């Protein structure tokens, strides 16, 4: 088991990562009967995409001795209705201002093809991922 999730009432859950003991609170969003005081479940999906992209890029960078510390993902989620779902996730990856060679840029960009979250999302959901060097 990876996670234990408890429904706390009032459309809030707490998810405990069993290995580390870290906890994440989730709320239903305001536009779906919730308070919106914490990440919604669909916010977590979009966040998972951004964190996975940076992690996979970091693995490639580490293997190739490229410093990407300070890289940032700005993630925007767009919802659709009928049925309610995530229609699009945009991720703008802002790289630190360093003099990356064309080869280093190519290695980092190729790493995106190995993002497990990217590969796991429904193909009808648009993933718009851009890297800003």
What number of domains? Answer: 2
Q: Calculate the terminal CA-CA distance, rounded to whole Å.
A: 39 Å
Identify the CATH class of the largest domain. Alpha Beta
Strands of the largest sheet, in order across it?
Answer: 1-2-3
Radius of gyration, Cα only, in angstroms? Answer: 17 Å
What is the beta-strand fraction? Answer: 25-35%
What class do helices, strands and sheet pairing give?
Answer: alpha+beta
CATH A-level architecture of the largest domain: 2-Layer Sandwich
Poorly predicted runs are none
Q: How is the main sheet built?
A: 3 strands, antiparallel
Mean pLDDT: 97
Strand segment count: 6
CATH topology of the largest domain: GMP Synthetase, Chain A, domain 3
Fraction of residues in helix: 25-40%
Which H/E pattern describes the elements?
EEEHEEHHE
Q: How many individual helices? A: 3
| Apparent shape | globular
**What would CATH call the homologous superfamily of the largest domain?**
K homology (KH) domain
Keywords:
133 residues, alpha+beta, GMP Synthetase, Chain A, domain 3, 2 domains, three-stranded antiparallel sheet, three-stranded mixed sheet
Quick overview of this protein structure:
By secondary structure, the protein is α+β, with helices and mostly antiparallel strands. It has two domains: 1-39; 40-132, GMP Synthetase, Chain A, domain 3 (2-Layer Sandwich), CATH 3.30.300.20.
Verbal overview:
By secondary structure, the protein is α+β, with helices and mostly antiparallel strands. The chain folds into two domains: 39 residues; 93 residues, K homology (KH) domain (GMP Synthetase, Chain A, domain 3, 2-Layer Sandwich), CATH 3.30.300.20. The chain is built from three helices and six strands. Strands 1-2-3 form a three-stranded antiparallel beta sheet, with no helix packed on it. Strands 4-5-6 form a three-stranded mixed beta sheet, with helices on one face.
């Amino acid at each position: 088991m990876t996670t234990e999730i408890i429904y706390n009432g009032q459309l809030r859950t707490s998810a405990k990562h069993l290995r580390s003991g870290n906890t994440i609170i989730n709320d239903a969003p305001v536009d779906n009967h919730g308070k919106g005081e914490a990440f919604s479940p669909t916010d977590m999906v979009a966040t998972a995409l951004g964190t996975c992209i940076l992690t996979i890029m970091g693995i490639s960078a580490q293997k190739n001795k490229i410093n990407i510390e300070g890289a940032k993902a700005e993630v925007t989620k767009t919802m659709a209705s009928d049925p309610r779902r995530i229609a699009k996730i945009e991720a703008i990856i802002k790289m630190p201002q360093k003099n990356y060679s064309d080869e280093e840029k190519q290695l980092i960009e190729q790493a995106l093809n190995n993002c497990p979250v990217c590969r796991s999302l429904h193909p009808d959901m648009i993933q718009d991922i851009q890297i800003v060097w």
